[in-house]
């Protein structure tokens, strides 16, 4: 740009402000990590996709591990923020589960690169520094699910501390089944666009809610060998 008019000079590339450049690099890196996975993504891939030099990329992120950590932290903050803003603080557990299902479908639709990153790396301990952020996402999802499961129990004055402790242990066992089934259902739906979203959401909700309802009522299957 000229000092006199402030107009762009042909052939001169305008320097992007530091914060804006960092956000651009994070967006590009999210797409690369989502498509390729952590191990197959190299810094040169990100630099080429962002149309910058590797030297400039390293000015913002000292290593691939640091870049991945920053990307996953952004994903965790965004998704958990949506969950916290959408899932009702009060109301029945069913209402909360339905809201969580809707948030996950929205997120997968609106942020396909972020969803791909979560699905690829959520339970991969070899990832590196970003593992901390992804474990945080898993833990936050687990806490949210457990709170939904225990909301009514914790509000029941007739429930003894010992009985509540039993419910807490059961909730911890159910949590990975809940979020695992939700993530799998959303991913399946993305691969089958001919399936109506409303039908997929309802199936995910019913699968979780009806199963939980039977468990809450005390129904159990006998352990292996007990039927013989």
TrEMBL record:
It comes from Actinomadura rugatobispora. The keyword DNA repair does not apply. It holds the Pfam family TetR_N. This is TetR/AcrR family transcriptional regulator. Keywords: DNA-binding. Residues 19-79 form the HTH tetR-type domain. The lineage of its organism: Bacteria, Bacillati, Actinomycetota, Actinomycetes, Streptosporangiales. Residues 42-61 bind DNA. It comes from the Bacteria. The keyword DNA-binding applies.
